[in-house]
Amino acid sequence: MRIQIAQRADADELLGSNPFALLTGMLLDQQVAMEWAFTGPFTIAKRLGGELSPDEIADRDPEEFAALLAQKPAVHRYPSSMAKRVQQLAAYLVEHYDGDAAALWRDVPDGKELLRRLNDLPGFGKQKAQIFLALLGKQFGITPEGWREAAGPYGEEGSHRSVADVVDDDSLARVRAAKQAAKQAAKRAAEPG
């Protein structure tokens, strides 16, 4: 699977081969550039000696893990709070899926159920769950019945709304432009009339 989300070959290779890394990148994708967020799992894995698994992260001392994310360059703008969220995600996967992140979508009956499972993840709200569902469908071929409907506007074919649509430099630029246009529209709508 050739992924180009982090825009770094080594980080993208991990995202394409490690479902937990992909979930972690999605979790980190807030209040920082998308490439920074999705490079985070690779940075964490490198600092842990190359391995990135829910079991290992869930078992880490929280203060040590937060310090690991805060090392320069920091994994996120808010390394302490994101370290806590990553550990919560890891612990949830260990408890509910035996540490197998791909079990979230393996043999899922339909898009609605997959969306429910993603919504249940710590740190995943409706929008993040829909974007991740669209990412699974568009780039990983995980397409249970009704996945596009469950992903909402992010599942639309040909859209350029989110990380689910980033497959190269051109699509990254189109997603950025669409996000900027949406922010401007929201800003205009919020201005007093």
Automatic annotation (TrEMBL):
Q: What InterPro entries does the annotation carry? A: DNA_glycosylase, HhH-GPD_base_excis, HhH-GPD_domain
Spell out the molecular function terms from Gene Ontology: catalytic activity
**GO BP, sorted A to Z:** base-excision repair
- Give the organism the record lists: Spongiactinospora rosea
Domain named HhH-GPD is located at 25-188
What Pfam family is a match, any one? HhH-GPD
**UniProt-recorded name of the protein:** Fe-S cluster assembly protein HesB
